[in-house]
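## retry 2 of 3
previous attempt timed out at serialization; input unchanged, resubmitting
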Amino acid sequence: QVQLVESGGGLVQAGGSLRLSCAASGRTFSSYAMGWFRQAPGQEREFVSAVSWSAGSTYYADSVKGRFTISRDNAKNTGYLQMNSLKPEDTAVYYCAASRGTYGYRVSSYDYWGQGTQVTVSS
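## retry succeeded, writing output
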C-alpha cells in the first residue's frame, strides 16, 4: 500500500504559479511511477503529467506542456508539480497517483490515489 497526500493548492490569478506536492508513505515510493491528474466540476478526470520511477522520463498533456514541470525526490518520498503561467481553464482538483507499472496517461494505469487538492485560477 502507498498513501499519497497532496498539498500546495490554492487560489491564484491568471499568469501566476503554484507548486503542488505529493507526499508518499508506505511502500517504497521510488519503485512507483507517479502521475498528476485533474478533474474539473462535471468533467472526467484527465491526465496532466507523469514521471518514471527514476525521474528519467517525463510525459505531459499538450494542454500543460511548456508551463508545468513534474519532478520527484525519492529520498524525500515526495513528488512535485510546478505550475507556471496558470490559466482559468487549469482550475480543477489535482490528484497525484502512483503506478506499480510503467507511467502513462490512463487513469486505469494507476494503483493508488491521493485525496486531491483544489487549484483555482481567477481571470
